[in-house]
Amino acid sequence: MLVSPISRFFPSLKGRKYFQEFWALKGINLEIKKGDSIGVLGRNGAGKSTLLQIIAGTLSPSEGDIDVQGKINALLELGSGFNPEFTGRENVFLNGSILGFSENQILNKFQEIEEFAQIGTFIDQPVKTYSSGMFVRLAFAVQALLEPEILIVDEALSVGDVFFQQKCHTLIEGLLNKGNTTFLFVTHDTGSVVKYCSKAIVLKEGEIFYEGDSTKASYIYYKIDSFKNVQMVNEYIEKIENANSGLNQNLRTDGKNSSVEIENWPSDSEFVFPANIKVNEVGLGEIELKSYIIKNHKGIATSQLTTGEEVTFYFKFKVNKKILRPCFAIFINTKENVTVYSKYDFQFKVNQGKADYLLPGDVVSVCYRLKLNLLPLEYSFGIVAGALPENELLNIESISMSRFSENLKYIYAATLDTLQVQNQNESLFLPFMGLCDLPGEFENHIIRNGELIK
């Protein structure tokens, strides 16, 4: 307040800024038609939530215009319109009226909302007594089941447990199949964007770096930090369109020898450079991981996977010093750091033979294809490279586990990222119980009066 009048007497103050200007969005030019399903991808701080809040009307743009035609339901901050002193029933009508629905419209949908939220008799209790899960379930049910003309979802499909998430996904699919709802979806789950959205945009530092096909957008999202401008994105798109990105069909994990044709691997442009690697044990720099990529059974790069899905992990290492060929192992851990799965290359009965030496400058490509028979949870994964003495490496199939452990020297080990495994179908029943599935068979016989019933 004082700078302007004082600057009359002290000209040096004129033009001086007493704040740091920050533009969450800049140069956005976007047109979304009725019935479109648009995914919005970008790293944290890219401006995704700001864009949706402006469209929803909870934020006003500093400049420019926005024209929205249609009734909006925005799943941004779930439950933000709830009064903690009111019951669940009262909040349904309160929140629905805030969204612009009449009392009759809400009344017609109330039973469906109540059944979807699954909070039972708590519907007539004050929401301040609800657990966090009950609270967000009711809030989601109100927003989604009132069948909006425009539905905006900001990471809200991850509310509740895995079973409620499945109901949320089924509900969204139903809305999209009707074709009456325009859908805007912000998430870090590229698999969901490809599934639900015909188009997607990728934001970086408040700018649109890509707008178009959702599958291509998912590739760009994984490498967005390496792009300095839109021109680099266009060049990358051209590369992946020309590259042979087909998954290798010859790799088997059935205990028999298998081989991978290098030309069937993803192109270099598809690989992701490791970021925020947690190195568990560091060797002497003999070998280092340069890039990796995870692809689902459709060949889409994603870390959002389903139980029983076949997924392929690709890793590329650079050799810095002359070393004996290392043993590689992938590992998958729970949040509690319990190892659910880990397996070395020689346990696949591959890469057997003479003990080769690797030379500085060599590039080692490692590929694991796994069937993710895992409980729907979030896991971390990583890769290990270990060195054995030459005599042990040549006789690796005959040495004991204790001898292997005593002689193995870790030359590289890193936890790389997380995997989100979801149930593959809409039913509440899992294909198995426990953390993982084991290969096996089952027989059932009934004996009645000493005779086998067939």
What would your notes on this structure say?
- With 454 residues, the protein is α/β, with parallel strands linked by helices.
- The chain has two domains: 37-240, P-loop containing nucleotide triphosphate hydrolases (Rossmann fold), CATH 3.40.50.300; 264-422, abc- transporter (atp binding component) like domain (Coagulation Factor XIII, Chain A, domain 1, Distorted Sandwich), CATH 2.70.50.60.
- It has helices at 3-6, 48-56, 88-98, 103-117, 132-145, 162-178, 190-196, 214-222, 230-242, 390-394, 401-407, and strands at 37-41, 72-75, 150-154, 182-186, 199-204, 207-213, 278-282, 287-295, 304-306, 310-319, 323-324, 327-333, 339-344, 357-358, 363-371, 378-387, 409-422, 446-448, 451-453.
- The strands form five sheets. The protein has a six-stranded mixed β-sheet, with helices on both faces.
Please, how many helices? 11
Strand content: 25-35%
Could you name the ranges where pLDDT drops below 50 across 5 or more consecutive residues?
243-261
Tally of separate domains: 2
Give, in order, the helices and strands: HEHEHHHEHEHEEHHEEEEEEEEEEHHEEE
- What structural class is derived from the secondary structure elements? alpha/beta
Major sheet: arrangement of strands: 2-3-4-1-5-6
Looking at the structure, what is the overall shape?
globular
| Number of separate strands | 19
For the record, give the distance between the C-alpha atoms at the N and C termini, rounded to a whole number.
92 Å
How much helix is in the residues? 10-25%
Radius of gyration: 27 Å
Family: Belongs to the ABC transporter superfamily.
Keywords: ATP-binding, Nucleotide-binding, Transport
GO molecular function, one term: ATP binding
InterPro entries: AAA+_ATPase, ABC_transporter-like_ATP-bd, ABC_transporter-like_CS, ABC_transpr_TagH-like, Bact_Polysacc_Export_ATP-bd, P-loop_NTPase, Wzt_C
